[in-house]
Amino acid sequence: MQRSYLLAPSILSADFARLGDEVQKVSAAGADWIHFDVMDNHYVPNLTVGPLVCQAIRPYTERPIDVHLMVKPVDALIPEFAKAGADIISFHPEASEHIDRTLSLIRDCGCQAGLVFNPATPLVWLEHVLDKVDLVLLMSVNPGFGGQKFIPSTLPKLRQARALLDRYEAETGRHIWLEVDGGVKVDNIAAVAEAGADVFVAGSAVFGAANAHDPNRYDSVIAQFRAELARIDREGA
Ligand code: DX5
Ligand code: ZN
User: Fold this and answer.
1) Which ligand approaches the C-alpha of residue 182 most closely?
2) Which of 96, 163, 212, 218 has the highest count of CB atoms within 10 angstroms of its CB?
3) Domain of 54: which CATH number?
4) What residues are in contact with ligand 1 under a 6 Å CB criterion?
């Protein structure tokens, strides 16, 4: 089936000293969404940025800001990120006492709502809340750090999620995005797409040190990702 694919570079691997410029450049290079990783040194063993930084980058892009909350508890931060200009807000079900309530809160704040699954978290958490979900995010690494290796057991799980979301779309006519996050590179994006993903987060592959001296680095990585996606649409993974 022909899908539309979206690329969501994660600014976790960007140069934080010049974040506005990084966001502007990666948007001009063709990023579809800006993936914004929020870590609290409690739900995950790392600490990143909050709503103030989301608000600070907002003027530098017209792309949707895709906020990935790796925090516990989650609810208090949701209105803050909505005010700071987030478009999509996702959270891990383990981090919320009341998943249905948190999903509603995100939509009530005017954002799209996403549910995130760690590699070992089963998809059953989706069963009773699909109507309140706009995005399913499957982690293909354990959350907390950029630059980790893709965990292969994500591929069968992606196929399972794709089948579930296709059934839902056939019944309701509503598309739910299926996003993958962690270890996505030019050499595995085709396999990830073939398994069913339609939104691809990439941090180190886009902003990583290997590209640091290439002035057109974002254009060239994004072009390589798109070429791979076009290739599997033509000939399979
Ligand atoms: C990990 C984050 C990811 C991370 C991906 O917890 O959620 O978004 O930035 O980075 P790469 O693409 O380097 O694995
Ligand atoms: Zn993320």
Assistant:
1) 1
2) 218
3) 3.20.20.70
4) 10, 12-13, 35, 37, 68, 141, 143-144, 146-148, 181-184, 201-205
